[in-house]
Every structure is written in C-alpha cells, then in structure tokens.
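Report of the visiting student (M.T.), summer placement. My assignment was to run the structure pipeline on a short list of targets and document each run. The first record concerns ATP-binding cassette domain-containing protein.
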Amino acid sequence: MSKLSSLHLRKVYKGRAVVKDSSLEVNQGEIVGLLGPNGAGKTTTFYMFVGFIKPDGGKVFLDDIEITKEPMY
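After the run finished, the structure tokens were exported:
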C-alpha cells in the first residue's frame, strides 16, 4: 500500500517562517484535510507536500523513497 509522507517541512518567505516543522503521513485511500486560521500555512504545506513548491527544510517521501528534490513530472 502506497503512502506519501513528509518530515519537518519548513518554508520561509521574506525572512518570515510561514511553515515550521510540519510532518504529515497519508496512506493510499485516505482523505485528509488541513485545518487552521488564515495565514497558518495550510496552502504552503500542501504545496510542499505535493511538489508545487520546494521546502526550505525537511523531506518528502513516497513509499519511504525521498522525492523532495525530484521534479514534479
């Protein structure tokens, strides 16, 4: 069964940390939602998780294989 996971994701914009130490694991068939107030980093976390933007720290894995620096395609 496939899983997509991240460990300690971090993103900084203009000197401001918008995501700090975010870790997440999603197994095949699961539905997951990210909840939080405006400006909490939900969209940025999701974009790093799926490869739309590169994190400044942390790693993303697909089935325990690191894919953080792999191209999206």
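The longest strand covers residues 16-27. Strands lie at 3-13, 16-27, 57-62, 65-66. I thank the supervising group for their guidance throughout the placement.
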